[in-house]
Design brief:
The complex is a heterodimer of chains A (229) and B (390).
Chain A (H helix, E strand, L loop, with lengths): L1 E7 L10 H10 L4 E9 L4 H8 L9 H19 L2 E10 L8 E6 L11 H10 L3 E4 L14 H4 L1 H4 L5 E6 L2 E2 L1 H5 L4 E4 L11 E5 L5 H10 L3 E5 L3
Parallel strand pairs in A: 1-2, 2-3, 5-6, 6-8
Antiparallel strand pairs in A: 1-9, 3-4, 4-5, 6-7, 9-10
Chain B lengths: L1 H28 L10 E6 L7 H9 L6 E7 L5 H12 L4 E5 L8 H12 L4 E5 L3 E2 L4 H6 L6 E11 L4 H23 L10 E5 H6 L12 H11 L3 E12 L5 H19 L11 H5 L1 H5 L4 H24 L11 H11 L2 H4 L2 E4 L2 E5 L5 E3 L5 H14 L1
Parallel strand pairs in B: 1-2, 1-4, 2-3, 6-8
Antiparallel strand pairs in B: 4-7, 5-8, 6-7, 9-10, 10-11
Helix pairs in contact in B: 1-6, 1-12, 2-3, 6-9
Classes of the chains: A alpha/beta (229), B alpha/beta (390).
């Protein structure tokens, strides 16, 4: 089984660790597949504007540079650790209300997708790029003031676009995803080194981008594990 | 009067610290010339993910040495270190073997981890090395060069590297000052056998003569006991001046406190009454009493700052000697010394230790017994209760 984490932030958005160091942290720990998913934040809300002001988001301007660096590190990760690195982003629609907010991972992204577009536009653009769409932390997180509940509250409308739902994020488990029998993965939402020790996904497939994507989409041979050092 | 005594002790302490620095300088100038290159079995007990684990393990597979093997030993396939071990074995299939066995009886988890690997090892010379150690290509060659016919054990000096969190920086400062100086001083000036578990090279014949794993399975400081038994059996214990790197990147402050409390308890159980001389190697902690006793007067604060500055200068010099760069974190030295000064008292009131998720009570010669979790008062209460109810 491949040990995977598909939700990782670096200093390109609000992570505390540089991309190169992140690759080494996961490589040194024996991971097989990871996805770098820095935030792409909507600029049409007060919270989003703050993210742009403090450079806590990947923008259209630096997207190509971001992708280029991920590709460079992906090659290094493969040569050194035999670890597959998938480029991605976390489209973050942030509003004051939890019910209006939603985050979604776009894995194996190729072109920039603005976060201020409508949900349908974002999902269709992701499909056009043959990317995987994952609904992140879709339910209430204990102790979190601002949750991201929009996708869950509108699941009937959007479930057809979503390839998998985060059933566990860092230390939280969302049993509602299991109860609805949705396809699932589990991730760390890595922002700092201590987050390495958190929920992870195990995939029973070949270590290639297409096999990993297919495994997530079909949701067969998927397991989750609480990774402890 | 007390103030003058403390003042004298503090200045004596900083002088002693300077002497320890001289011991390290002398140690680093030693040279071992030998072309003796026997085949070596390297045994690496693994448990959990150490910082930099992949590179640490791989550094042992890149040795410029004619014939050797690397055995990675674990107790559990579910150990996260197993995946890393597998990747290393896949990369160096002719050099690396993995042994997974949890069936051996030993209270010391590191010893328990090694017994099967030792039995599976091919060569007469074997080297036990911790998983958080990073070495250069010439490590094996230079370490083996210190092994002579009358030598029973070769260990190495250690230094801490790569600290990124506060806990790791404190840990590295402690390794690169108190620890490296203490072992150099004991070895060079007091001629006491010093063995450091992070790297221990032995012959199987000598090891089995002192009782093998049976003699260390239930002790906490297996490295100290091996060194002691080797010394008592008439074999030399050699501290090689080849410095190995202990990689500590993301330690929490709590982990730093935990390790040094454990090590202090070990030293207390080993040294006995001599443990009371240990604060003499902590001039910053001793001089912190001067302002306390003198009501924080300007002069007393200046004396404290003067001693702390000399200590920092010494530590910077030590790091230059060992080619280490602690950088700006050196300013944490007074805080680190103060914390270790406080830790020094802990063994006097507690003999419970927490190591690798196991809790033990530590006795003489670091003999360990599983901690039953009951306080003395609770035990007496339970016995009285049993006596009255039965």
């Amino acid at each position: 089984m491949l040990l995977c984490d598909f939700h990782i932030h670096t200093k390109y958005s609000d992570g505390s660790v540089e991309l190169k160091r992140v690759i080494d942290i996961f490589g040194q720990a024996g991971f097989d597949v990871i996805a770098i998913t820095d935030h792409v934040v909507n600029g049409d809300s007060m919270i989003g504007k703050l993210a742009y002001k403090f450079r806590l988001t990947v923008t259209e301007d630096n997207f190509n540079y971001y992708m280029e660096n991920i590709r460079y590190e992906a090659e290094r990760a493969w040569n050194k650790y035999e670890m597959l690195v998938i480029p991605g982003v976390e489209i973050s629609k942030n509003y004051i209300s939890s019910d209006k907010s939603a985050h979604m991972l776009i894995l194996d992204i190729k072109e920039f997708i603005p976060a201020c577009e409508s949900y349908e536009t974002i999902f269709l653009e992701a499909k056009k790029q043959d990317a995987i769409v994952v609904a992140c932390h879709p339910h209430n997180i204990k102790g979190e003031l601002r949750n991201t509940l929009y996708l869950w509250n509108n699941r009937e409308k959007y479930e057809k676009y979503i390839d998998a739902w985060e059933i566990a994020n860092r230390d939280d488990v969302f049993s509602v995803v299991s109860l609805r029998k949705y396809p699932y993965i589990a991730n760390s939402d890595f922002h700092k080194p201590v987050h390495l020790y958190s929920w992870k996904t195990l995939l029973n497939c070949e270590k290639t981008v297409s096999s990993v994507k297919s495994c997530i989409r079909n949701n067969r041979g998927v397991a989750i594990t609480l990774f402890r050092g | 009067m007390i103030l003058w005594i403390v003042l004298f002790i503090a200045f004596f302490s900083i002088t002693l610290y300077g002497i320890q620095v001289i011991a390290l300088r002398k140690k680093l100038k030693e040279d071992y010339n030998s072309e003796f290159l026997p085949p070596i079995s390297i045994i690496k007990p693994l448990k959990g993910l150490d910082d930099n684990l992949f590179d640490n393990l791989e550094s042992f597979c890149k040795q410029d040495y004619p014939e050797y093997e690397v055995i990675l030993s674990l107790q559990d396939y579910n150990d996260p270190a197993y995946r890393v071990a597998e990747k290393i074995r896949n990369r160096y299939p002719n050099l690396v073997r993995i042994i997974v066995d949890n069936s051996r009886r030993a209270l010391n988890p590191k010893v328990k981890n090694m017994i099967s690997a030792y039995r599976a090892s091919k060569y007469e010379y074997f080297l036990i090395s911790d998983s958080n150690v990073l070495v250069d290509k010439d490590y094996l060659r230079k370490t083996v060069s210190a092994m002579k016919p009358d030598t029973g054990l070769v260990t190495n000096l250690i230094m801490g590297v790569s600290g990124k969190s506060i806990g790791a920086k404190l840990e590295n400062l402690q390794l690169n000052s108190f620890i490296i100086l203490s072992v150099s001083f004991l070895d060079k000036f007091l001629k006491m056998p010093c063995s450091i578990g992070k790297s221990m090279l032995m012959r199987k014949r000598d090891f089995e003569e002192i009782g093998g794993f049976n003699s260390i399975r239930d002790v906490l400081a297996e490295d100290y006991i091996i060194g002691k038994l080797m010394h008592e059996s008439g074999k030399k214990v050699v501290l090689s001046n080849y410095i190995i790197k202990n990689v500590n990147e993301y330690w929490s402050f709590r982990k730093f406190l935990n390790r040094h409390t454990r090590w202090a308890k070990i030293r207390w159980k080993i040294a006995g009454i001599k443990y009371f001389t240990e604060p003499l190697s902590n001039p910053v902690f001793l001089s912190s009493f001067i302002p306390l006793l003198d009501g924080f007067s300007r002069v007393s604060l200046l004396v404290f700052l003067f001693i702390a500055s000399i200590k920092i200068a010494f530590d910077i010099y030590i790091n230059r000697l060992i080619n280490s760069s602690t950088g700006i974190s050196t300013i944490l030295t007074p805080f680190k010394d103060f914390m270790t000064g406080i830790i020094w008292f802990v063994p006097l009131i507690s003999c419970k230790i927490n190591w690798r998720d196991n809790i033990y009570t530590i006795g003489k010669n670091t003999l360990i017994v599983p901690h039953n979790g009951n306080s003395t008062v609770r035990v007496i209460f339970d016995k009285l209760k049993t006596a009255f109810t039965n």
